[in-house]
């Protein structure tokens, strides 16, 4: 999973499920969350839920980091356009 997460570029946002699938573990979205919790770093702020929701308890920091990369966040969710 680390390789997938570390390959993300500024402004690129993916879901937990997309990371799991890309890492060869489709359906293991919760494992991605555990990995991020346990290992920190790895561009965690670029990973959101399938609905675009930010990480509970870290919304302010995640929104700031995403905004710094040009990603639009409205009401705790990543918005396209």
The CATH class name reads Mainly Alpha
Instruction: Supply the number of structural domains.
Output: 1
- As a whole number of angstroms, the C-alpha radius of gyration is 12 Å
Oligomeric state of shown chains: single chain
Uncertain runs with pLDDT below 50, 5 residues or more? Answer: none
In one word, what is the shape? globular
DSSP E strands, number:
4
Please provide a written account of the structure.
The chain has 81 residues and is an alpha+beta fold. The chain is 41% helix and 12% strand. It has 4 helices and 4 strands, in the order H-E-H-H-E-H-E-E. The strands form 2 sheets. It has a two-stranded parallel ribbon with strand order 1-2. A hairpin with a 2-residue loop joins strand 3 (72-74) and strand 4 (77-79). 22% of the residues are buried. It has one domain: Arc Repressor Mutant, subunit A. The longest helix is centred in the middle third of the chain and has 11 residues, at 29-39.
